[in-house]
Amino acid sequence: MSLRVTELLGSALVQDLGRPGRSGIGVSPSGVFDRRAGRQANALVRNPADAAVLEVIGAVTLRASRPTTLAVAGAPGPLAIDGVPVSSMRTLHLPAGGALTIGAAVVGLRRVVAVLGGVAAEPVLGSRSTDTLSGLGPARLAAGSSVHVGLGAAGPDLRQLDVGVPGIGDLTVRVVLGPRDDWFASTAVDTLLRTGWSVSDRSDRIGVRLDGPALERAVDGELESEPVLRGSIQVTSAGLPVVLGPDHPATGGYPVIGVVVDADTDVLAQGAPGRVVRFRRHPAP
User: Fold this and answer.
1) Quick one: pLDDT band at residue 284, thresholds 50, 70, 90?
2) What are the residues facing 277 on neighbouring strands?
3) How many domains, in total, are found in the chain?
4) Is the CA virtual torsion 213, 110, 4, 147 positive or negative?
5) E strands within 65-186?
6) Would the pTM count as exceeding 0.85?
7) Is residue 154 part of a domain?
8) Most buried of 30, 141, 154, 237 (most Cβ within 10 A)?
9) What is the DSSP string of 229-273?
10) 3-class SS shares of the chain: helix, strand, coil, % to 5
11) CA-based diameter of the chain, in Å?
């Protein structure tokens, strides 16, 4: 054991880059929602990009049983070692008995914690990711949980990544229309692209639910279930869009009006409730 969760107000999950390619057996890809942040945090501690990390929403305190090298990336927010403020996006060294306190994000939603050697959870179907829909992978962490860490090389030199952090404005993502945009009135597509959609507090890793005007259907009736991808924009019976996240089901019955470009789905990981999401057509007409 290297870390123990002593306090948790929110959610903390073990994630890596997921288990893609298994939709044929009904398994979603899962994996860290903000993959860019996961890679950044792992790079700071010189882990492989696919090393398991912790994905945190809210506040958590981690206490080390031995000297531990780690890094925090993703949404900005307060961070302290034994009460002394430190910076995210840099390599941190936690002494034996020391405590890292991660506060709730001040902009965005999710923070990613990488530990030298990676989180040593038992792989399931080739991944250490927690799938919140199917229940595959490690259990959700709670106060008192132990976080086992793999063996890593000697601690890296203190360094910092000079990269941008999530801003305070709207989240803009590119979207490719289809495959079921013909199930909607032409005005619905225009509404999708012109509206500033508000992230619902009912959003999760399965789907980012958006509030705004209802999208009018041109085709009545039910659609037979068909495969869906991360980033698929399903439109519910109430006419509201849901952008599928990493823990999405393998198939769905709501028509998909468009699909968010894969790289842009990482942006949606930082969609806190009330944040505005805008869709930009790709490629531009």
Assistant:
1) confident
2) 171, 197
3) 2
4) positive
5) 68-74, 79-81, 84-85, 92-94, 99-102, 110-115, 146-147, 171-177
6) yes
7) no
8) 30
9) -TTEEEE-TTS-EEEE-TT--SEE-S-EEEEE-GGGHHHHTT--T
10) 10, 35, 55
11) 63
